[in-house]
Design a protein that fits this description.
Blueprint (H helix, E strand, L loop, with lengths): L5 E7 L9 H8 L7 H13 L6 H19 L4 E7 L6 H10 L4 E6 L9 H13 L6 E7 L6 H14 L3 H5 L2 E7 L12 H16 L4 E6 L13 H10 L4 E5 L8 H4 L1 H13 L2 E4 L7 H15 L6 E2 L8
Parallel strand pairs: 1-2, 1-3, 3-4, 4-9, 5-6, 5-7, 7-8
Length: 323
């Protein structure tokens, strides 16, 4: 590796730091359109239900700090790590500017979501690429399109699935259906060139095989409040279907998420749990990854693999696949 350190641009969704920031955060998500009073009140109520704010901010900070420490332990002084958020400060553009100020001319860009999608990782990487090209000198960006195939990732989640099943009663465990979930997106965004659905399903199949599962399926959660058609089947409908089929329990593995946050703590632990209770099935979920050292090590290995692999989109774990 050259004397000049390689940059690492870590990107994530972001979350309000205080209840007072919820409205501006929601406006950013809505691409500059302020929410109606009714929509704002609903979101504020959801934050209140999980404690007032989301722990995502702290978890993301711990993940980024853990990644920086892991990289420095493996190859001291070789990487400069910076974090940028899609919707809150510091922004993606802020982080790229910090990398440029640190003298970085080449950087790996990775999003804290495992699967590639035009509506998800694509938007982060596009913003990062624009910011990197505007620097003087420009920063060469090595985008990581997806990293769910990174060695060790599926194993960590399969261990969590087994632990989740072990927490159930014998009857529930023997007849439980495991549902792997990821964030739904508008179906219009998932065209034939978008690998999102296929990657989530592949990811689920890898974990199910490692865990030795017989009864499992994929569902989608947390669809936006718009008139668009969103990718399904919807998790809440799937819980109702599983109950109608006679299964006594559902274990949710949110494979598309790497931290405890609104989509986990409210959408699963409160909203999905209420539906499960109403239809008479037990509901459990796997523990979130957060800053688990095993997960941080997977991220560090993914970054090092991308840094050593030259330019162009990288889909880790299968370098020959087109992004």
């Amino acid at each position: 590796m050259s004397e000049r350190p390689t940059g690492v641009l870590v990107m994530a969704h972001g979350t309000p730091a205080t209840p007072e920031e919820i409205e501006s955060f929601y406006t950013s998500i809505r691409r500059g359109r302020p929410p109606t009073p009714e929509l704002l009140a609903e979101l504020v109520g959801r934050y209140e239900a999980i404690g007032g704010t989301s722990p995502l901010r702290q978890h993301t900070r711990a993940q980024v700090e853990g990644l920086a420490a892991a990289l420095d332990a493996a190859v001291p002084g070789s990487f400069v790590v910076r974090y940028g958020s899609k919707h809150t400060a510091p922004t993606i553009e802020d982080a790229v500017a910090e990398l440029a100020d640190a003298g970085v001319t080449r950087a790996v860009a990775i999003v804290l979501t495992p699967h590639q999608s035009s509506a998800g990782t694509g938007q982060y990487l596009e913003r990062a690429a624009r910011a990197a090209s505007s620097m003087d000198p420009p920063i060469e960006l090595v985008p990581v399109a997806s990293w769910f195939r990174a060695p060790g990732f599926a194993q960590i989640l399969s261990d969590r699935v087994r632990a989740g099943l072990a927490s159930l009663s014998r009857r529930d465990r023997d007849n439980c259906v495991v549902v792997f979930t990821a964030h739904s997106v508008p179906t219009a965004a998932v065209n034939e060139d978008d690998p999102y659905r296929d990657e989530v399903e592949e990811s689920a199949a890898m974990i199910a095989a490692l865990a030795g599962l017989e009864h499992w399926r994929v569902a989608w959660q947390s669809a936006g409040r718009t008139a668009d058609e969103w990718l399904g089947p919807n998790l809440l409908d799937e819980i109702r279907s599983i109950a109608a089929e006679g299964a006594p329990a559902v274990l949710v593995c949110p494979v598309g998420f790497v931290s405890d946050h609104m989509e986990v703590l409210f959408d699963l632990d409160i909203e999905a749990a209420a539906v499960a209770q109403a239809v008479g099935v037990s509901l459990a979920r796997t523990a979130s990854l957060n800053d688990d050292p095993r997960f941080v090590a997977v991220l560090a290995d993914a970054v090092r693999a991308a840094a050593g692999g030259g330019g162009g989109d990288t889909c880790l774990g299968n370098p020959g696949r087109e992004p």
